[in-house]
Amino acid sequence: MAGLLNATKKENGMKVKSLSAAFTTDKVAESRDFFVRYFGARVTFDCGWYVNLEFGSPVSSLQFMAATQPEHRLSSSAGLMYNFAVDDVDEEHHHLLSEGLTVVVPLDDHPWGDRGFAVQDPNGITLYIYSEREPGEEFRQYYR
Description:
Blueprint: H1 2-8, E1 21-24, H2 28-39, E2 42-46, E3 50-55, E4 60-65, E5 81-85, H3 89-98, E6 105-110, E7 114-120, E8 126-132, H4 137-140
Parallel strand pairs: 1-4, 5-8
Antiparallel strand pairs: 2-3, 3-4, 6-7, 7-8
């Protein structure tokens, strides 16, 4: 019996079809409107207390939800960062500044292989916007 159980075990763990992040907030509508306006998000589900937003191709998604169940607690934005890879970070930087957003991490080239900057969403989540660059010599060894 033990041999049969081992034979049916997945060799490399769970086979994930997709992954997304859901953030519990009291600012569901503000979050939806922010990401639609500034990041071109598509709303694919919105029942008022829960919204699903999709970005780019291949599709990435974020969800924002109100705390409607006892087990739901408001999320903290402390230490949370969403990374957005874009074709032209300089263009996005100019666009978001012209829209009035405040940059919380200045636009700069980074030796680990990107050029990026950061803003914050209505929940205080840091949004790092970047374009890939050739990494510096000290970081090349870490890429696989």
